[in-house]
Amino acid sequence: MIRLSIIAALLASATAASVQAAQAPAEIKLGTLYASSGRYASISMPVFDGLKLWIDQMNAQGGAYVKAYDKKIPLKLIAYDDQSNTATAATLYNQLITQDKVDILISDSGSVLTSVAVPIARDHKMLLIDQTGTGATFFTPDNPYIALMADPVSSIWPKPLADFITHDGPALGIKRVAMLYATNDFTGTQANSVRKFIKEANSGVEIVFDTGVPTNTSNYTVLLNNIRAANPDAVVHLGYAGNDIAFLRNVQDNGIKFKFLFCIYPGLESELLEKNLGKKALDYVFTYVPSSAIHYQTNFGMSLRDYSGAWHKKYANAHVEFGFNSVAGYTTGLVLEKTLATAASLDQLELRKAIFSLSGNLKTLDGTFELDANGAQIGEITPLGQFVPGKNGSPELVTVWPHAVANAKPIYPRP
Amino acid sequence: MFLYSLLAGFLFGLYFSLIGLGLNLVFSVMRVVNLAHGDFLMLGAFLAYWLFTLFAVNPVPAVAIAFAGFVIVGLPLYYLLVPRLLRAENPEMLSFILFFGLSQVIEAVTTIAFGTSERSIPGDQLGRAVAVVAGLFAGHTVENGPVELLGNTFPASWVASGIVSGCAVLLVYLYLYRTRLGYLTRAVMDNRAEAIATGIDVHRVCAVAFGIGIGLAAVAGVFAPFMLGSITPAMGTEVTVTAFAVIVIGSLGNPLGTAFGGVIYGISYMLMQSYYSSWANVLPYVLLIVILLLRPSGLLGRQVRRA
Amino acid sequence: MARHLLLILLPVVAAFAILPSVYTNHLMLFNFIIFMTLAQGLNVIYGFTGYLPFGYVGFFGAGSYGFSLMVIHLQAPPFVALLIGAAAAVALALLLTPLLRLSGVYFSIANLAAALAVLQVVSNPNLEEITKGPYGISLRGVFNPTLSYGTAVAVLAATLALVIYLRNSHFGMALKAIREDPISAGMAGINVVRERVVAWLLSALIAGLAGGVFAWYVSVFYPETVFSVEFSVFAIVFVLFGGNATVIGPILGVVILYGIYNAVGISTPQYFQLIYGVLIMGLVLFLPNGLVSLLQRWGIDVP
After folding, report:
1. Which alpha helices (H) appear in A86-173, and where do they start and end?
2. How far is C153 from chain B (nearest CA, A)?
3. What superfamily does domain A156-293+382-401 belong to in CATH?
4. Domain extent listing, chain B
5. Mean pLDDT in runs of 10 for chain C (303 residues)?
6. Which residues of B touch C240 (CB under 8 A)?
7. What's the pTM value of the predicted model, to 2 decimals?
8. B1, B116, B230: residue with CB nearest A37
9. A178: distance to nearest CA of chain B, Å?
């Protein structure tokens, strides 16, 4: 009996060892899409470049450490161009899963191009590594095959903004708020949240102008005139980068000075907006403080300063600006790096388990990585910041809310 | 609010007539649907951007450079594409597809060259030009800033592009009605077969019209960074659709009709944006359909129905 | 006609029925089916009557939304929802019948405007309660890739059968006579208006069914997804490339061009759009009547 069991144990360990040796793949295949042209190209390319930077870095060190095989394995990126076309994107996601048999499926940037991947990934039981697809409808209790890496889900983006207005606003004299938003999933959801947060706070702040415009609106002169007529203490504009550029240009060209003006993208894509609007246009504008402008304490990966240096070195001659989206792509990489180093196997649900085990513990240059039960990101919040004129003339972004991370007092009304 | 929307719509509309002007000329002369019109506009915009960032050229001289440059590009392009196309059974329909292909090529090449991010030229650049011109008229220096019209203020760049657009409409009108080549162009517009029979060199006439059409698109492009917020290689398609709405509302052939269409479009768009903002973008489409059905010839013009 | 059914319809349907077990990128196959259906649907109106509906995608989107809203609001079973989606597309086509009074490019532009207007209405946040506005559709409980794939094949089969019928029947001949010369056709006793409207509604019905199946298969989408003008453009290019008013032409167009599109997209993505644009231009300039015109030039009769 004893002899038998020893033989069995020997056999078992021998097969286990051989299985492990045989199974360790020569490379880990990561599949993703990007949009080199079309509507979503400007948000897709920086994310893609950020992800590529991480992969090159890993491979320069001989690959990523994979716990399942207890060794470093090179990463192989398989990436296709969906040209911002959702039907093409859908086919290509399928291509990645069924033909290339990628080990890890990473979606394209933004909600629209991510949306088609959600059911496909679920159908094929592949965990969708959602980079910046923040649509609230993606995250449901019945779908375990998705996790949001690098942006908070859109419904909680404006929490710090609304909290500031309702807590500190009335004392400063902010009673009447005007809100103008682009009617798409990303900014429409945020507008709903602002409305909800302000109503629930019941602090005497009222919304006196609340208007949605189509996302392809490129001209705000008439709307600005209407906002001015509503006589608001604070103006909140929620739109994509193109909307913000057009909006702020019109504000500037019309010589309007609102007492409080909030826009999303001056913080998120500062380089891009400064390039388009000049240095002066951002003075005293309130915005989200993204990870590309806050130096978070990290416990993993490069700090913001190092990453920005690496980015500008690698992409010195590219046409892509450094900003919050480029941080997002790299953050995805960091989460994956940690996941591979944690997961017991490359099984998709094991990967999921590993990712969820990072929740609340992983602190990257993007902030604290934290997921809710459905895989939506809730840790990497977007504090409220304000641009103030800096020493050398270029605007400087300071954080004003919440108090825990604030490093300056808000300037209200705008001088 | 009402007066403001009206005035803003008027200025904005003048610019939209400039956008439609070139498309109208090309379509009415050679029955070719230039689906790449918006992409030529985008190229003009990138030319202005490029001239400004590399050589600090103000957008006003850039207008002349863009026009001349694109007329020169347009002439060989005409001979390359259109005569071959017109030999086919149904050139009008095929031109749709051909120029769609061209628009894809233009967008792809621009994306490869410039990347995909938004670009623009600072608003005060046009304002400076306006201030200088206004200063000449007023006899004293005028400050660079918003312009006041009937007690309302508008961006200086709007006024500048409105004036240039008005001038462009006028110049095209003078070209068609006061020059010999323009006279021949109208003959081709009216009846191509007859024009050929009377010995007019139709290809020469058409090539010039094509060149001017594309040149006008490029001129409109120079103002795009100011009027449309910012520019990207992908902006063309939307511009083309709007340009269609404008020329359908106006009428084919006549540049004054296009100006009229542009202004109607601009004013109704601004009024919609003021009072029913989320529906503002439905307007051009509905307007286009209704006008086509009720007054198929635009507000002046020719037969477009059949059966 | 029986010969065409046997030689064209049967092989195509059989191919799409067998391929999933050989090739695992089912969605690519599904997209082939959808584009083939749309191309043939467009063939019905463009090939046989000469009207080029640039806004053909409007019917596709109407079908998608008709399907989805039935599922969301009334928990309708997929097949019922599919029929309602198709009905929505036909209703939209009925509403747009006055456009048939316009000629040539005017019709195309007005139709495109109509499709874009429907998109603006569907994605308007004021209608969020009904259409989910810009926030998009997410279907639960009906997701069934196998059944929806099978349904797509069935829709394609029905569409092909219709085109084969048109190609071989009096009705199809009458339509073509109207296309060539509406006045003489009218004098020859053909009810010009009625025949045209029937073709128009049939073509909308096909797009509506395709849209409904698409929504069923994809199940998460935004308004921009199903109203993307690229659907129209692709369908038009496929039909023109293959050759309109034939059964084979659009099939060839889809297989070859969409095949190249996918191959180029996967192998050399950076020049994807450029290559496709150049291809389209070359096609119009050098082969304006499509691939089948080459065969016809060599004396081969193409169904």
Report:
1. 86-94, 111-115, 117-123, 159-167, 169-172
2. 29
3. Response regulator (3.40.50.2300)
4. 19-234
5. 82 92 88 96 92 93 97 94 97 94 82 91 87 85 88 96 92 88 87 92 97 92 87 87 88 90 70 80 84 84 77
6. 94, 97
7. 0.84
8. B116
9. 15
